């Protein structure tokens, strides 16, 4: 493999080239009118083991860690750009899409998986849960600088920011049902309300604490404030996840609170 043959210098070179390609891809995506994420995926396929073979990656633990950190930042950034007042006006349709919409999508995909792959119902619903939510990064990126009605844009942004917790809950629940056959599906109902309730409450609480801390602390450099706020996003996720709540929901709610507050060096 390329990286194994040439070591750390090759890794630095490849990282530099990928960053340059990433910037160029964003430029082309704006001109072509579709999300840069599509082109990013194509670049990844080209350099991966099924393409040029420059990078071979099969570490599930590192992939999960990178994915969690990335999604925390994406949801945090999306929440900061959305006002609480705007979300409140579209709360019912966005939450309906984020919950019932995910369930309906998962059910349709599950039915298709049953017919195509001949798997059990739990396995079929696992397929559905995995693909049941919209991608927050894609939605936030697609809606930027687009001529979309404010209410529709707010609905889609709020839905994409809150449906990931639902999809994560369904995915983990069906994995648990598949692994442990003695688990009853009704046991998962109180777990759902605990996860969402804890995420909502801790998101509101830590968002207010973060806003107050950002305004009260006097940092020497204005560039430290974004780092300080990102640290609160990671703290919000970890504390909520530690007690069994939905860390992703907590991060998005905290970001809504912070973004709707008057902040120093906003």
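Q: What amino acid sequence fits the structure above?
A:
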């Amino acid at each position: 493999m390329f990286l194994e043959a040439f070591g750390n210098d090759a890794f630095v070179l490849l990282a530099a080239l990928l960053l340059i390609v990433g910037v160029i891809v964003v430029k082309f995506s704006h001109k072509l009118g579709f999300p840069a994420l599509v082109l990013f995926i194509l670049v990844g396929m080209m350099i991966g083991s099924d393409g040029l073979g420059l990078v071979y990656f099969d570490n599930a633990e590192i992939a999960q860690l990178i994915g969690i950190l990335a999604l925390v930042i994406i949801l945090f950034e999306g929440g900061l750009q959305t006002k609480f007042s705007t979300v409140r006006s579209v709360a019912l349709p966005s939450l309906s899409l984020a919950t019932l919409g995910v369930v309906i999508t998962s059910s349709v995909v599950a039915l298709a998986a049953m017919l195509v792959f001949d798997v059990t119902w739990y396995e079929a619903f696992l397929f559905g849960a995995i693909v049941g939510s919209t991608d927050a990064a894609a939605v936030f990126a697609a809606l930027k600088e687009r001529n979309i009605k404010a209410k529709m844009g707010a609905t889609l942004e709020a839905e994409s920011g809150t449906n990931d917790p639902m999809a994560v809950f369904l995915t983990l629940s069906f994995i648990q049902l598949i692994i442990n056959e003695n688990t009853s599906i009704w046991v998962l109902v109180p777990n759902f309300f605990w996860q969402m309730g804890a995420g909502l409450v801790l998101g509101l609480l830590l968002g207010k604490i973060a806003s107050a801390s950002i305004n009260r602390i006097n940092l020497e450099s204005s560039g430290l404030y974004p780092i300080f706020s990102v640290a609160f996003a990671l703290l919000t996720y970890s504390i909520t996840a530690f007690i069994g709540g939905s860390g992703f929901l907590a991060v998005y709610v905290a970001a809504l609170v912070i973004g709707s507050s008057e902040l120093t060096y906003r």
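Q: And what stands out in the fold?
A: The chain has a mean pLDDT of 83.
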